[in-house]
Amino acid sequence: MSDELGRVRQMWHLLEPLHAVLYYAPEAFEEAAGLGHAVDERWPSYFAWRAAPLGAVGADRVTGTFYSFSPGMTGRYVPAGWSVAGPEAVLAARTRAVDRAYRGLFGDRVRGPEFAEAAVLARRAALAADVSGRPLAEANAALPWPDAPHLELWHAATVLREHRGDGHLAALVEAGLDPVESLVSFASVGAARPEVFASRGWSGAEWAAGRQRLAERGLLEADGTATDAGRALRARVERRTDEQASGPWEVLEPEERERLVELLGPLWVEVLGSGLLPSETTLGIGKV
Questions:
Q1: Is residue 33 assigned to a domain?
Q2: Could you list the residue range(s) of the whole structural domain that residue 219 is in?
Q3: Dihedral pair phi/psi, residue 279, rounded to 5°
Q4: Is 280 inside any structural domain?
Q5: What is the pLDDT of residues 227-238, one digit of tens each?
Q6: Residue 139, SS3?
Q7: Number of domains the chain is built from
């Protein structure tokens, strides 16, 4: 990996936890419960929070844009969730959830100069993102920017992570990996245990069929680990993802990118140290 692409991936590693607070913070579950969503599991609110920028779309639209979830799982929460609360109400609650969660995590620092400086830099990168053909990035980029720096930072992180995510899905399609195969191949290179990927709702039979298809392509060993060809394919996917995510960062000077890393680092440490986020996820951060 080139130094430049390494810096692109570093920015994702730093920003992703700041975005993901929304899906795990108790304040977010409280806001979801206030809307009327069940909160005994995280999926009703997850699908609502993440899909709301798209509008009151159906299950097919969400399945296509989220990609890794089984259609059966998506269909359990979409479009039923819109009868609980429409997208506008969800987006308002989402903002309240992030505001409360960030204040709980970072206290009075959300009003400090470091947050304001980080928000300015991250916003410049997010505004430079070409979101055409990237549905989740485009939908989030079209939302009004919040005024408070900590909410501005979260919004920028969200636009940038969805921009990267949309590009990642394009890279998977380019590599000939369908949704379940994309997870099987990621598990095969050690991104996470197969049990972690079970959260995406694929049945054992569907997972096994995906493994069989990849084995027939010479990408998997009999034990489910990647062959050399499988690892090479996955490395190309990740490199292509980094390449497609690089555009927004070109607007910042090298010293500005380094300054943003410096500003985000302590926030990253605090989010991870809070215990809110699971130690092992389907994103493979730090593993690939």
A1: yes
A2: 3-273
A3: -75, -20
A4: no
A5: 999 999 999 999
A6: helix
A7: 1
Q: Pull the structure tokens for residue 21.
A: 């607070």
pLDDT tens string 174-184: 999 999 999 99
How confident is the model over 171-223, as pLDDT tens digits? 999 999 999 999 999 999 998 888 888 999 999 999 999 999 999 999 999 99
Whether residue 65 is contained in a domain is answered as yes
Provide CB contacts within 8 A for 79, sequence distance 6+.
56, 57, 58, 59
DSSP 72-112: HHHHHHTTHHHHHS-HHHHHHHHHHHHHHHHHHHHGGGGGS
Burial letters for 89-125: b for 16+ Cβ neighbours within 10 Å, e otherwise?
Answer: bbbebbbbbbbbbbbebbeebbeeebbbbbbebbbbb
**Which residue, 284, 125, 273, is CA-closest to 189?**
284
Residue 282 three-state SS: coil
The position carrying tokens 């097919």 is: 60
Q: Quick one: pLDDT at residue 89?
A: 98
CA dist 163 and 140 (Å) reads 9
Locus of tokens 């959830």: 97
User: CB of 6 within 8 A of CB of 279?
Assistant: no
- Alpha-carbon distance of 270 to 109, in angstroms, equals 12
Report pLDDT digits (tens) over 118-172: 999 999 999 999 999 999 999 999 999 999 999 999 999 999 999 999 999 999 9
Nearest of 23, 31, 8, 96 to residue 281 by alpha carbon = 23
DSSP state of 280: S
Q: For residue 87, which phi and psi values (nearest 5 degrees)?
A: -55, -40
User: Would you say how long the chain is, in residues?
Assistant: 288
Asked, for residue 264, whether it belongs to a domain, the answer is: yes
